[in-house]
Amino acid sequence: MIKQINHSQAFLSKKSVKATKMDGAVVTDLMDTLKANTARCVGMAANMIGSNKRIIVVQMGMLSIPMINPEITKKSGPYQATEGCLSLEGQRETTRYKKIELHYLDQNFKPHTQEFSDFTAQIVQHEVDHCDGVLI
User: Fold this and answer.
1) Cα torsion 13, 19, 24, 25: sign
2) Which of 5, 8, 64, 100 is the most exposed place for a label (fewest CB within 10 A)?
3) Rounded to 5, what percent of the chain is helix, strand, coil?
4) Which PANTHER family does the UniProt record give (predicted)?
5) Which residue numbers are catalytic?
6) Contact 67, 108 (CB under 8 A)
């Protein structure tokens, strides 16, 4: 189900709690909402649709990849980036890393460790920041 985008900075600033297998509907809603906003968005975190769960979805080409309980385990190559966010007005400067390693669970709760670089790494970092209650 497509959800409204949450703009509450108080809610978005709260650290998300770990998702469980009972949160499948949140994954589906997050994917539906990202698909509905693909013209202006390449990733979403569950708190952007009002759920305080540690779930993100990242657009990679034609695929939307859900990542449950994501944790960045390595990062290298810091740089400054200017980013926008559907939940916030305007654009802001932030530090990102050119290459990251991410540990996460897929929709079936199978664990994955994957490296991401460049723009995909930037998207993942932005969404993991959402899970950590960090607003750019």
Assistant:
1) negative
2) 8
3) 30, 45, 30
4) PEPTIDE DEFORMYLASE (PTHR10458:SF22)
5) 127
6) no
Q: What angle do CA 65, 68, 70 make, to 5 degrees?
A: 95
pLDDT at 80 over 90: yes
pLDDT in tens, 20-73: 999 999 999 999 999 999 999 999 999 999 999 999 999 998 899 999 999 999
Count, residues in the chain: 136
What six digits make up the tokens of 66?
Answer: 């859900």
Helical residues (DSSP H) of the chain, grouped into ranges: 9-12, 24-36, 118-131
Phi, psi of 44 (to 5 degrees): -150, 150
Is 90 exceeded by the pLDDT of residue 121? Answer: yes
pLDDT for the residue 73: 98
- Alpha-carbon gap, residue 128 to 69, rounded angstroms: 9
pLDDT at residue 99, as a whole number? 98
Question: Across the chain, what does the average pLDDT equal?
Answer: 96
